[in-house]
């Protein structure tokens, strides 16, 4: 780290210390501190700003590490009538009556920046913003990756064995399979372990599968919610956007650009999100998915490590992935779209 960069980095450390009510020397010497709630909220805002998807779901602060889910988003019906000559009127919980709990797991977002990178940034007036932005972007991507692929919370994680962060936390899809098995379709033919889509199959196209999934797996009180979307892997969307022209073409296909702009599959808005598993469809509303972050429990310390020519930034946060209402979900996995048979060439006379 050159002299000018060192000055910029020291100014950055001074700002971090002031924001969190800590002594500059304590922070500069690698002391661990608890991030102030107002600064934690700023960090969360920076993460949200880097991800359109995270802005569409719920990312909320919670006081307790474990507890009952907040039951945000999808609401239960409440309209009723009571003959008050025989009994008193009773209120209804506006949220789902289904019991649902969460448990936050410590998640470490430990990173480093090499001196060469810091030296190249030092000349810019937004040096501090660049340092923070890069980390916020990665936290956002990691949260999405965990939400779709997480299956466990290992004491010590292994990114080599779990490149999609499967062992960092239990994500939404895993919890749906674990807690709402009746709402998950894994196969059409018993013991086949797959859902094949194409001519001659139960589902002739992806639209038929999505429509049936919504009608058969989601209760009537949630089925026609206009916020329902079909989240799916990019492999399935590619087949939807560029379908083969055959006798099984979906009714919604009017023109290529119309399908892409509307992104509708089986009558639902289609959503493609990074790291969503291939061959999978999830029907729900985006506000039925949440990430809970425990307030006042973000801990951080920074270390200048000259022997490795880098600055290390250790940050931990307690987080949980929550499906607010398991009644308002339906999922299909192991989906394979079969190729249409090649046209038969006419026999020469």
UniProtKB/TrEMBL annotation:
Q: Which Pfam families match?
A: Phage_cap_P2 (PF05125)
| UniProt xrefs under InterPro entries | Phage_P2_GpN (IPR006441)
Write down what this protein is called: Phage major capsid protein, P2 family
């Amino acid at each position: 780290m050159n002299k000018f960069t060192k000055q910029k980095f020291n100014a950055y450390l001074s700002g971090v210390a002031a924001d969190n009510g800590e002594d500059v020397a304590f922070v500069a010497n690698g002391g661990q501190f608890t991030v102030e709630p107002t600064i934690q909220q700023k960090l969360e805002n920076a993460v949200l700003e880097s991800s359109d998807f995270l802005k569409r779901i719920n990312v909320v602060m919670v006081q307790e590490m474990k507890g009952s889910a907040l039951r945000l988003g999808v609401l239960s019906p409440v309209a009723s009538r009571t003959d008050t000559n025989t009994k008193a009127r009773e209120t209804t919980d506006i949220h789902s009556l289904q019991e649902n709990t969460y448990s936050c797991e410590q998640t470490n977002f430990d990173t480093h920046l090499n001196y060469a990178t810091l030296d190249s940034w030092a000349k810019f007036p937004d040096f501090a913003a660049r340092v923070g932005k890069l980390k916020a972007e990665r936290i956002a991507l990691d949260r999405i990756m965990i939400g779709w692929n997480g299956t466990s919370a290992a004491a010590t994680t292994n990114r080599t064995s779990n490149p999609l962060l499967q062992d960092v936390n239990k994500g939404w899809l895993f919890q749906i399979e674990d807690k709402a098995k009746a709402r998950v379709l894994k196969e059409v033919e018993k013991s086949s372990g797959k859902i094949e889509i194409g001519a001659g199959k139960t589902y002739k196209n992806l639209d038929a599968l999505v429509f049936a999934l919504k009608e058969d797996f989601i209760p009537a009180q949630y089925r026609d919610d206009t916020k329902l979307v079909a989240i799916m892997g990019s492999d399935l969307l590619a087949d939807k956007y560029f379908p083969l022209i055959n006798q099984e073409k979906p009714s919604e296909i009017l023109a290529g650009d119309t399908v892409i702009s509307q992104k509708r599959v089986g009558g639902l808005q289609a959503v493609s999100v990074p790291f969503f598993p291939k061959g999978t469809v999830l029907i729900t509303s985006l506000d039925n998915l949440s990430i809970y972050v425990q307030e006042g429990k973000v801990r951080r310390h920074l270390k200048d490590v000259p022997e490795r020519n880098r600055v290390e930034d250790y940050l931990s946060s307690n987080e949980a992935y929550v499906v607010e209402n398991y009644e308002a979900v339906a999922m299909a996995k192991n989906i394979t779209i079969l190729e249409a048979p090649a046209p038969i060439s006419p026999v020469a006379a």
